[in-house]
Amino acid sequence: MVFLVLLSITLITLDFRGDGGGIIDGLRDGASDALAPVRNVADDVLSPVGDGLQGVTGYGSLEDENASLRDRIAELEGDVLESEAAAEELDEALELLGVDFIGDIPTVAARVVAAPVSNFEQTIELDRGRDDGIEVDMPVVSGAGLVGRVVQVSGSRAVVRLVTDPGSSVGIRFVTSNEVGVAEGEGADRELSVGFVEVGVELRRRELAVTSGLNDSVFPAGIPVGRVTSAETATGELQQDVSIRPAADLDHLRFVRVLLRTRSSASAAPSTTTSTTATTATTATTVAP
Amino acid sequence: MLLLAVVLHTAVLPQLRIFGVAADVLLLLAIAAGVAAGPERGAAVGFGCGLLADCFLQTPFGLSGLTFALVAYGVGTFQTGVLHSAWWIPALTAAVASAIGIVTYVGLGVVVGQEQLLSMRVVEVVGVVAVLHALLAPLAVRAMRWAIAADGVPGLLLR
What we know:
The complex is a heterodimer. Chain A is of the alpha+beta class. Chain A has one domain (about 25-289). Chain A is built from 5 helices and 12 strands. In chain A, β1 (about 105-115) and β2 (about 125) form a beta hairpin. Chain A is globular. Chain B is mainly alpha-helical. Chain B has one domain (about 1-160): Arp2/3 complex 21 kDa subunit ARPC3 (Orthogonal Bundle). Chain B is about 70% helix and about 0% strand. Chain B has helices spanning about 1-10, 25-55, 65-80, 90-110, 120-150. At the A-B interface, α1 and α2 of A face α1, α2, α3 and α5 of B.
C-alpha cells in the first residue's frame, strides 16, 4: 500500500512538472486513439438513449427551456437593429486595435464524438486530431460562438475544454460599453461569471460579450462568448458580479470548427484588419441570449 | 475484464447520465476488488483502475490511481472486519465507499492544485453515483470474485 501511495505521488509530480519525458502524454494519446473507434460506435448507438434519459430526468427543465426559447425568439426579432449597431462598433474597435479576426484564420471542421468521461470536467472529444493540424490551445467555435479550447490532442482525436468548465477563463470585451473582463466557467448548465469589471460601468442586460484578444490570448478577438444576464454590485465591493449566458449551445453540440491558430502563429503573423460588417452582423445576431 | 470496464467507462456510461452524472465503473471495480480480494490486492487492482481512468482525464496522472487505491484498501480493511456478509452489505459498502472516494478525489485534487474540482457539483455527483453504485455493486462484486478466482491469479482481470 505504501509503495502504491509513493508511486501515485511520483506519477502526479511527474505529470504536473511535465518531466515524464512524454511517456504520460504518450500513454494518454495511445489510450485515446485506441478506444476511438469503440467510442464512435457507442456515441452513435447510445446518444438517443442518453437523450431519452435526459428527457425523462430533465422534463421539467425542458418545459421551462421551451418557454424561455419562445421568449428569446420574440426578443431576438426586436434586437436586430441593436445588433447591427453593435457590429458596426465592433468593426471600428477592431480597426483601431488592428487585431486578427476569425474570418482570416484557417479552420478545420470536426464532429463531437464523445461526452466527458469525468463527472467533474466539462469537455468534449472531437474526431479530428494532430493529423489534421490541430494542436493544444487552439480555439474551438460553433456557429453561435465560442465553445472552448483544445487541451489534449492525439493523432486522431482532440479533447476540448468548454467555456463552462471551472478551469476555463476567457478574456472578454463588452461590445457596447467597451469594458473588458475575464469570463470563468462555473460548471455544467451554469452561466459564466465575469471578473474585473469595475463598479460604475453600466452594463445592459443582453449586452454582447466577445473575446478581447488582448494579452497574447489564445482566442482571437471578436468571437461571441455570450450575453449579459445580470450585473450586480454588493455594498462595499470594488467589482461588479456579472454573469453571462454562453452564446454557443454547449448541450447540443454536434459539429464545431477548430481555429488553426496558436499563440506563436498569432504573434508571428502581421496584424490584419477586416471590415466584414455583414459577417459580424450575422455572427452577432445569431448569438443566443 | 479491465478492458471491458474501460470500454464501459469511456464509451458507454458517459452517454447514460442521470441529472448529468454518470456511474464511475472503474471506481466501482476498485471497491469491488476491496470487497472480493481484501485490502492489499484490492489496493493493487484499485491502483490499476485509477491509472486507466487517468488516461482519459485532464487532472494529474496518478490522482485517480491514488484515490482508488486508498478507497479499495479502506473497503478491504472494513470488509475483513465484517463477520457475516448480508446481501445488502456490498450495496451499502459501495454507496458509502463511492461517496468517500469522490470526496477524496476532490480533496486530493485540491491539494495538487485542481481547485476547480471543488464546487456544489460534488454534492450532485456523490448523491447520484452512490445510488448507481449501490445498484450495480452486487454484479460488480460477483464479477470481481470470478476474475480474482479460486487460484487468486490477478491476470484473469486482464481477460
